[in-house]
């Protein structure tokens, strides 16, 4: 949002960069890995959109954002407390590069949250053969896995949709992402706002792969709705004024 505001000249770039560094610092301080991974991955979503007329190519934008995030993240990690650095390394080293090199296993195993999430996801995948194709119903995930705490969810939006809503629920979700991408592609040629909104949608989707449940990942529906609203406005539609 800060980058979009600066690109629309609603905010000076130095102020936007300063606020972005503060936001990144606070994100790292929380120790939450889902938003951090999503923030690192979401610039790649810009490669799925065409270049705006008269604007830089998506690849150039992605390169700038990636370099900025990498430099800022490396500097901030140097001053973070040791527990936060270890939790962050546990998930970053467990990525594709870490798996290929064999790194990160000890850090991963020392993190109880990571081990517990992996176990819940494994049990969620195991129960799919009993609930597909229609699913077990909304809110049924903990009961189907015989979990004592009914607040426990798989921290993966696709697994949750399959377990609770079956193939129809997953198909509707994929359709939402597909339509949002098509609308963002149509808008990106004329308005940079669509590209930033799509990047925010991608960040919300990435976060939903490793964090929260359907209600807790409301940003996915919010940013998809923002893209839909921008698409409608671009087509000349509007919202009629109605009395409260």
UniProtKB/TrEMBL annotation:
Superkingdom per UniProt: Bacteria
GO cellular component annotations of the record: membrane
UniProt-recorded name of the protein: O-antigen ligase family protein
Keyword annotations from UniProtKB, A to Z: Ligase, Membrane, Transmembrane, Transmembrane helix
Pfam families registered for this protein in UniProt: Wzy_C (PF04932)
Topology term for the membrane: Multi-pass membrane protein
Principal location listed in the UniProt entry: membrane
Keyword Ligase recorded: yes
Keyword Secreted listed: no
